[in-house]
């Protein structure tokens, strides 16, 4: 594999490994209650820094992961997008997921869809994966809309209770979306 996994580019965005100067804006993103609405809780600075270290380590270990995302024109950090291997057992694991988390001021510009589409290109064209999944809490309509725009499909029979969340937790029930390499190519050529 070539070193092009260290940075991916789309029309407006750069997906890249994490840098030291990402720590403060990443911590601000993870502390924002609106950004973290569909996660168990906002993160403290220490939790955010630990997450950043894990994300960068995954990129180094696997050659892919959740990359830092910046706007190419300005270099402004806006969040993360990329590929990950879920760390829990479920009926669909082992799997590779596509995911994203963007700062609130970056919502509504199509950045999540653009960065996730570039991540899927990498998954299918460079890594030769047969399928990629995405999942979120049932009520997360914004992320579900991105999954639809990516051409991912949802079968209610695939929905699951997230094993990291306790019985009765408001976010426990999750939806699962899938996309195959063939479907991604078809969606890409149609768009």
UniProtKB/TrEMBL annotation:
PANTHER family per UniProt: GNAT FAMILY, PUTATIVE (AFU_ORTHOLOGUE AFUA_3G00765)-RELATED-RELATED, N-ACETYLTRANSFERASE DOMAIN-CONTAINING PROTEIN
Domain (N-acetyltransferase) ranges: 13-172
Keywords associated with the record: Transferase
Upper lineage: Bacteria, Bacillati, Actinomycetota, Actinomycetes, Streptosporangiales
Identification of the protein by name: N-acetyltransferase
Gene Ontology terms for molecular function: acyltransferase activity, transferring groups other than amino-acyl groups
């Amino acid at each position: 594999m070539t070193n092009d996994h260290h940075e991916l580019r789309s029309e407006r965005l750069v997906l890249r490994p994490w840098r030291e100067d990402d720590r403060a804006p990443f911590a601000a993103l993870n502390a924002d209650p609106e950004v973290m609405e569909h996660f168990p809780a906002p993160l403290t600075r220490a939790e955010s820094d630990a997450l950043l270290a894990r994300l960068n380590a995954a990129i180094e270990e696997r050659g892919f992961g959740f990359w830092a995302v910046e706007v190419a024109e300005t270099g402004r950090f806006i969040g993360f997008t990329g590929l990950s291997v879920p760390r829990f057992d479920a009926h669909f694991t082992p799997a590779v997921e596509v995911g994203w988390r963007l700062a609130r001021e970056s919502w509504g510009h199509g950045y999540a869809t653009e960065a996730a589409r570039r991540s899927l290109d990498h998954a299918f064209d460079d890594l030769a994966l047969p399928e990629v999944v995405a999942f979120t809490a049932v009520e997360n309509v914004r992320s579900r809309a991105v999954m639809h725009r990516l051409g991912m499909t949802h079968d209610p029979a695939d929905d699951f209770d997230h094993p990291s969340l306790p019985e009765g937790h408001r976010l426990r029930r999750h939806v699962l979306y899938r996309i195959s390499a063939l479907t991604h190519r078809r969606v890409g050529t149609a768009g």
